[in-house]
Amino acid sequence: MITATNITKVYVDNDITTNALKGISLTINQGEFVAIMGPSGSGKSTLLQMLSFLDRPTAGIIKFEEKEMQTLDDAALATFRNETIGFVFQSFNLLPRVSVYRNVELPLLYSVSLPADARKSRIEAAVANVGLTERLQIAAGKLSGGQKQRVAIARALVANPAVVFADEPTGNLDSASGKQVMEILKKLHEDGRTVILVTHDLATAQYANRLIRIKDGLVDSDTAL
Predict the structure, then answer these.
(1) What are the strands of the beta sheet with 59-64, ordered from one edge?
(2) So what's the pLDDT on residue 136?
(3) 204 with 35: CB under 8 angstroms?
(4) Alpha helices for 69-174 (secondary structure H)
(5) Rounded CA gap, 155 and 105, in Å?
(6) Which of 210, 118, 194 is nearest to 156 (CA)?
(7) What is the reported pTM?
(8) Domains with residue ranges and CATH for the chain
(9) Which residue, 100, 142, 146, 198, is the most exposed by fewest CB within 10 angstroms?
(10) How far apart are CA 187 and CA 1, in angstroms?
(11) Where are the beta strands (DSSP E) in the chain?
(12) Is pLDDT of 134 > 90?
């Protein structure tokens, strides 16, 4: 599904150059549940940004289903992300004063072809999928951390993406809430969804069926779980 070949990423800030990725090659197949781990500064979050097309590599080739994504301009890439990828952030990235319904609706606002009744059905189904139907009209800022992350997952799912990316999805949660979130992601994988997450926590990584360890901008190991 996603193939990265000799990916490098260099950041330049004034006179300081940081080689975040130093030539990573890997393939992620449809239906996999992949965890990416590594110490702080190893390049794991940068790699996730490359694989999810939130950023472009300095050099190398990334293909999605054999299409070279570097051929897309920024507008086309944004449309591709909205239609194909769901993203769950550690910090939730919700609008706190807006209802759960409106937060989950956001990715669908860019889909002019989706009728209002179909949009409503999708939102309600996505929220039900994370067990928050009774919170549908509650402002997101009034929810617990675990509930906020479940809303973020519903938002990531509402456009029916091919791949769900999660960046430290349990990082701001207590252990019980983190387990709930990971059980939801596990169920998505069991239903056939491709899931790729970054985590610093081995217990979280063990929900996956493949573990990629990153060290100093390179793949240190790649093992089945």
Answers:
(1) 16-28, 2-13, 59-64, 67-68
(2) 96
(3) yes
(4) 74-84, 100-105, 116-129, 145-157
(5) 7
(6) 194
(7) 0.93
(8) 30-45+71-224 (3.40.50.300)
(9) 142
(10) 20
(11) 2-13, 16-28, 33-37, 59-64, 67-68, 85-88, 163-167, 194-198, 210-215, 218-224
(12) yes
